[in-house]
Amino acid sequence: MSKKSKPTAEELRFVYNLINKGLKGKDLPDEYLHLYESGQLMFPLRTDKRFFQDRIKEFEAASDVLLEDLKKKADPVIAKKREDHYNQLAIVAEDILGLLNSMKARDDGTFEYDKRNIDGYTNTFAGNREDLARELHSNIYNAEKKHRAMNLFKRFLVHLTAETPAFPKPDISELYKYADSNPEELIDLLNILAQRRFFIGKCPVCESLG
Predict the structure, then answer these.
(1) How far is 41 from 43, CA to CA, in rounded Å?
(2) Domain limits of the chain?
(3) Which of 50, 46, 58 is nearest to 19 (CA)?
């Protein structure tokens, strides 16, 4: 399996649990290797340091959000509004992904993903990075149009800037550039956001919720 394969929700929970137990730095890939060599690893063997750095960043951000939510448990109205907001943002991520959530890297450097043909049927295609970028461009355009009301798309972009330095400012032109420069990384990030369903950073809605 490719080291570029996206972590499933189950793997994210597994890694977060390791971090919560105090594993950090070299401990995390060492634990993966130990489980792999003993035949107990249920996920791909991860050797990329950035994979674990990203998971630590997500976990720490999630911990902050959860702690804040715990403090606000006395106010279920605010908690519900925050949950609804995050769910709306996750839907934006899903819409930008479209069928690209099925993307898999192939050994020959191309990518396999689902695509809907002119008859409305879904088939599996193989394409290069330019093909991925082209699909993303179309999805971004349609998602922005769909979520333009109440500035939901713009609020999603605010949160996206907090997730990665590859997206420096909340502007749709920057999102198109990101899709062109590293489409597979953007797809991986969107998949994580759609599954995780919470977001770091603060948009105007988050600010209003305290």
Answers:
(1) 6
(2) 1-71, 75-210
(3) 58
